[in-house]
Design brief:
By secondary structure, this protein is an alpha/beta fold. The protein has 14 helices and twelve strands.
Length: 397
């Protein structure tokens, strides 16, 4: 007999993936260059040449058995040390290599983090808007994901609703900053207030409420702002990271969990993650790419194109009368649709070959997401289509 749970998931496919598949099929008909595909958050800029050179050097000079063999289950020790050193230098932390667990991207990091600090039936809170895949990430661990409603004025945390929902069943809070889909970075004020509430509630309930901080967009920041590091404000933080966006390496699936050094049994938590890997199969990420990212832990691709694209789109939305909180990071923009039904809005946009993602599955009905990790030239042409779409479908806006 086939698994009922996973067979039922076939009827609830990712809206993002379905739209991406539609865009590919449409591209086969009219040329993909004529499809304005804003569905999938797939980095569009090349990996830095310096990183490629590093990989080539390793392939030429390093022991092939070391490069291509299984890595230790907790990650390659020298890799973990270099990542800890980078985090300490950049954020004023005191990690050791023993606080780092290497994973298959940020998804693998969250999979390990949530299983480390929850038991089946425990609750995890997250804040809308949120990445829809958090639902299977958390619920398939045996924990239960619950969503705090959004604060749409600025997409910071809705603390009034958060305090209503937090209870002694909550063992972890999952945040994503900079945020997919809103493009908003949580402010220092927001993170301090969150830490204050978590400290108070942990003491009240007699158990630690852990913070799981999902940070794959940490380096994609606009307007010269600084992205606050959540673990600086709350000592019970598990930081989940991926090099997919910073280095444009999504296919290599390399990330890590960094356990705050002040967590009780912090090093034991990392060892536990090695055991968790035995059950979920997210074990031993590629040795070659562990070694390469460790050598270039502070390097990023040229991320400036994302800010260029954001400014073009944001200005267009303002000109057309949309409501939109200006992103200060990521490669997403999150406007309010011109009608209450964002699914209907995005369906109408398809007639203009605009592939937009309705935000119902992000916990924020009435909005839509655009992943603008595409060529700037294509962004400019899409704005022409966007204006035609709005003027034709919503003439009385």
């Amino acid at each position: 007999m086939l698994s009922k749970k996973y067979k039922e998931m076939l009827t609830k496919k990712s809206v993002i993936r379905e739209l991406s598949e539609f865009a590919t099929a449409r591209g086969a008909e009219i040329g993909y260059e004529n499809v304005f595909d804003y569905s999938l958050g797939n980095p569009s800029i090349p990996v830095p040449q310096e990183f490629t050179d590093c990989v080539i050097k390793l392939l030429k000079e390093e022991n092939p058995v070391k490069l291509h063999g299984y890595s230790p289950s907790l990650g390659i020790p020298e890799v973990k040390e270099k990542i800890a050193t980078s985090l300490n230098r950049r954020f004023g932390m005191e990690y050791k290599g023993s606080h780092i667990f290497m994973t298959s991207g940020a998804a693998g990091a969250i999979a390990h983090a949530v299983r480390t600090v929850t038991e089946p039936g425990d609750e995890v809170l997250t804040f809308a808007p949120y990445f829809p895949e958090y639902i299977p990430y958390i619920n398939h661990s045996g924990a239960v994901l619950k969503t705090v409603p959004p604060q749409v004025e600025d997409f910071q945390i809705n603390f009034a609703e958060f305090e209503k929902m937090i209870s002694d069943k909550v063992m972890a809070v999952l945040i994503n900053t900079p945020n997919n889909p809103s493009g908003i970075t949580y402010s220092e004020e927001t993170l301090k207030k969150l830490a204050e509430i978590l400290e108070k509630k942990s003491a009240e309930y007699g158990h630690i409420i852990y913070l799981i901080s999902d940070e794959p967009y940490r380096e994609i920041i606009f307007d010269g702002i600084q992205c606050p590091y959540p673990a600086k404000y709350y000592k019970y933080t598990l930081t989940c990271y991926s090099f997919s966006k910073s280095l444009s390496l999504p296919g290599e699936r390399i990330g890590y969990v960094a356990v705050h050094p002040e967590c009780p049994e912090a090093e034991t938590m990392v060892v536990m993650m090695g055991q968790i890997s035995r059950g979920i199969g997210h074990n031993c990420p590629a040795s070659l790419f562990q070694l390469a990212v460790a050598e270039k832990a502070d390097l990023t691709a040229d991320l400036s194109v994302y800010e260029t694209n954001m400014n073009l789109l944001y200005d267009a939305f303002m000109e057309l009368g949309f409501t939109c909180v200006r992103p200060n990071g990521t490669f997403y923009i999150f406007p309010k649709a011109l009608e209450d039904d964002s699914v209907a809005f995005c369906k109408k946009a398809l007639k203009y070959d605009l592939i937009l993602v309705p935000a119902d599955s992000f916990g924020c009905p009435g909005y839509f997401r655009m992943a603008y990790c595409i060529d700037t030239e294509k962004v400019k042409r899409s704005i022409v289509a966007l204006k035609k779409f709005v003027e034709t479908e919503y003439p009385n806006r």
